[in-house]
Specification:
two-stranded parallel sheet; globular
Length: 182
């Protein structure tokens, strides 16, 4: 029997120090982590595109585990995430996003590194486009991808957010004695 019910998309606003980020999850896992200090409209527009007809339901309690892990990350006490994800993208995007998850905390890779990692060395621009479409900021660490020359390049959350995340990781890694390449 076909289920015609609209998909439910649960959301909350993570507020920690000066970080304000909208998060959304399906029953399968985290599917959206927004840009710092952006309005709810960022999530609404993403949901219209990726989960058309979905019903947005605020549920702070359901999303508390996601908030807890992100707060631990912001405090420099978490270097990886254990919460489930519900990726919404093309097969190529999913391949790129999985590769991003392999970049160690406190380190960076170039776009061409990611293209080589997924065995598509000529697809650097497509890799950049896929990275730019990553809906799950921070937890799928697209901020760890930089230009081949070491320059901080585009980031959906803005260059300042990218710079801040890399700085947070570098400082935490230094405190822990983890070697950093960024």
């Amino acid at each position: 029997m076909e289920n015609n019910a609209s998909p439910q998309l649960y959301w909350t606003l993570l507020s920690h120090e000066d970080w304000n980020i909208h998060l959304a999850a399906t029953s399968e896992g985290l599917c959206f982590a927004g840009s710092q200090n952006q309005p709810m409209e960022e999530l609404v527009q993403w949901a219209k595109t990726k989960l058309p007809g979905s019903v947005l339901i605020q549920n702070d309690q359901l999303l508390q585990p996601y908030k807890d892990e992100l707060i631990e990350y912001f405090q420099g006490r978490r270097t990886s995430f254990t919460v489930p994800f519900d990726y919404r993208g093309t097969s190529f995007q999913l391949e790129v996003w999985r590769a991003l998850n392999g970049i160690p905390y406190g380190q960076t890779k170039s776009y061409s590194d990611i293209a080589n990692l997924i065995q598509r060395p000529a697809a650097v621009r497509a890799v950049g486009t896929a990275i730019g479409a990553n809906p799950i900021l921070i937890t799928v660490p697209c901020h760890r991808v930089i230009g081949k020359n070491g320059a901080l390049t585009g980031y959906r959350g803005g260059i300042e957010m990218k710079k801040r995340l890399l700085q947070l990781e570098n400082e935490a890694a230094r405190r822990e004695g983890v070697e950093s390449l960024a």
